[in-house]
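sorry to bug you again but im stuck and you know this stuff better than me. theres a chain ive been looking at and ive put its sequence and its fold in token form underneath. id like you to explain what the token line says about the fold, in plain words if possible. anything you notice is useful, everything is just below.
___
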Amino acid sequence: MNSLKDKLKTLAKEALLFSHSPYSQKRIGSSILLTNGKYYSGCNIENASYGGTVCAERVAIFKAFSENKVSETKIEAVFVASDEKEPWPPCGFCRQVIAEFGSPETDVTLVNLDGSEKNYKFKDLFPEAFNADHLLKK
């Protein structure tokens, strides 16, 4: 998976270059790998109406699941790239979306342009995530 990991890292860093972030000035890129072997990337897209802003992770996830059946695949890995001094993690909203389409074992890798890298299992980044199982309990 090293060459695939390098490709996903590169895709996240390249996506960062397309960031539309005139308000925060924070450029973020993301790439994801699905269990079916397909991968997607996205960047953060800000809006003057802040509620219309979409993070890079969600752009990549929405692209992926608009083209793949949720019942047939999950997120295997998420890469998040920033040009900040320290790699940035997904926000709470993105973590909740990852919880919907990933698993506790989903790999999450945070990188920056200087080569810093942090690796997590999703369950360690977002323990006790709310998911569909909670809605099915009676």
About this structure: The chain has a mean pLDDT of 95.
